[in-house]
Specification:
The protein is of the alpha/beta class. The chain has eleven helices and 18 strands.
Length: about 375
């Protein structure tokens, strides 16, 4: 079956403008949580007459920004096509539903990328538009549009944060020497990319051993255009963290939460917050921890722990994505710090497989990103 040339051109045009809308969405990278990244373009007679993106929570949605942009330029939206990377919202929140504004605007056609991942809302916005007589095409570059919001999508479905585990190591899997020296294993290019990872997250987590050994700031540095400050979580079951460390004494100390065992005596880390958690056989109950973060609308948690913290999260099956930086170096030795601590597994059937790995070069380093697939044995 052959398609008419005019239909092929329309399909190609839809993909072209959806890619442009996706690029607009990324202008607010790392700034919109707990909302998603969304871009929108208004097209009339093949020409862009308005465009916009969602800047941050509480601000107008991308569709409204595009309509307002068209109005500022003196363009009518009557009969236009709206391209939007995510299905328009149909419920009242901090802003009115976008479906109402689209229907009132006179837009004739809506092309959507990804559908709303929330089962309660999925397809509802598109159905309302169709009911109002607006032509709708959904699923254009759906995978690409969904990937923009992979962490948010996970949060909406599971109601707890997407967990990225980031680790920099030598080719033999060491994260520090036997004396704890780790600055710097990887290159400046890798460290710059690591800052972009921080920008993508809402919160960052390390263990108390890392804080005592390295006294990290756990802030976003050298990323132009962002003023974002991360929430900082320190896993410290027995409350050993010194008061002098940066995360308890710098200008962002109020964004730090020290996570302790529920029976730990020391509990005042002000101006930092304290979170008490039950203990399981591995230590702090990480499932309870992530549930708490979900209730606080933390959509994406970046774990930058040492070997013990990495092992704890992996054994609990709570890591959604790993980002592993490999430097062309070998440290060697039984006493050097390992990327994943503990006794290890006894059978290869217990190994965690990494699905769909992607590799890239960053200076002299290799970076792999993949999704863990946990064993069922």
């Amino acid at each position: 079956m052959s398609f008419p040339i005019i239909l092929i051109r329309l399909l190609e045009q839809d993909e072209h403008f959806m890619r442009r809308a996706a690029n607009l969405a990324l202008k607010a990278f790392g700034e919109t949580s707990p909302n998603p990244l969304v871009g929108a373009i208004l097209v009339r007679n093949g020409q862009v007459v308005g465009q916009g993106w969602h800047h941050r929570a509480g601000f107008p949605h991308a569709e409204i920004e595009a309509l307002r942009d068209a109005g500022r330029q003196g363009h009518s939206s009557e009969g236009a096509t709206l391209y939007v990377t995510l299905e328009p919202c149909s419920t009242h929140g901090r802003t009115p539903p976008c479906t109402d504004a689209i229907i009132k605007s006179g837009i004739a056609r809506v092309v959507a990328g990804a559908t709303d991942p929330n089962p309660k809302h999925q397809g509802r916005g598109l159905a309302l538009l169709r009911k109002a007589g607006i032509k709708v095409r959904a699923g254009v570059l759906a995978d690409e549009c969904a990937e923009i919001n992979h962490a948010w999508n996970y949060f909406i479905v599971h109601r707890q944060p997407f967990v990225t585990l980031k680790c920099a190591m030598t080719l033999d899997g060491k994260i520090a020497t036997s004396r704890g020296e780790s600055k710097w294993i990887t290159s400046a290019a890798s460290r710059s990319y690591a800052m972009k990872l921080r920008q993508s997250a809402d919160a960052i987590l390390v263990g108390v051993n890392t804080v005592i050994a390295d006294d990290p700031s756990l802030t976003i540095r050298d990323v132009p255009g962002t003023k974002k400050s991360l929430r900082r979580f320190i896993l410290d079951p027995s409350g050993r963290i010194p008061r002098s460390v940066k995360v308890l004494s710098d200008a962002y100390a109020h964004l730090t939460t020290v996570v302790v065992g529920e029976k730990t005596r020391r509990a005042d880390f002000s101006p930092a917050q304290t979170l008490r958690l039950p203990l399981d056989k591995e230590g702090l109950d990480l499932n309870a921890f992530l549930q708490q973060l979900g209730e606080e609308s933390v959509t994406h948690l970046l774990v930058e722990g040492g070997g013990e913290v990495n092992a704890h999260f992996l054994r609990a099956g709570l890591v959604s994505r790993v980002v592993l930086f490999y430097a062309p170096k070998v440290i060697g030795g039984a006493d050097a710090r390992k990327a994943v601590a503990g006794p290890g597994i006894e059978s290869l059937a217990q190994a965690i497989q990494l699905k769909n790995p992607t590799w890239r070069r960053l200076g002299p380093d290799l970076v792999m990103e993949a999704a863990p697939c946990y064993p069922t044995v």
